[in-house]
Specification:
49% of the residues lie in helices and 5% in strands. The chain contains one helix and two strands, in the order H-E-E. The mean pLDDT is 84.
Length: 80
């Protein structure tokens, strides 16, 4: 007969070898997730670097026309 209102039973005791196996699986999963995180960060860094080098941005100023006016680039040596 089941108890209607009772606390759940305690988990059974496990042998040390079983606990050790669970810890090894958890460590393997943690290493896999850490390696995935580092690899995705490196891929993200590489893709940002690639996108910034490939970006061809030409600044335009709205001058009232439908197309705007291209802004000339000023080098640091030209600035007084």
């Amino acid at each position: 007969m089941q108890k209607k209102f009772a606390f759940p039973d305690r988990t059974p005791l496990m042998r040390p070898s079983v606990v050790e196996g669970k810890l090894q699986r958890a460590n393997l999963a943690m290493a896999f997730l850490s390696a995935t995180l580092v690899a995705s960060m490196l891929l993200n860094f590489f893709l940002v670097f690639l996108v910034l080098h490939r970006a061809d941005v030409i600044p335009y100023v709205s001058d009232g026309s439908s197309f705007g006016c291209q802004v000339p680039q000023i080098k640091q040596s030209q600035v007084k």
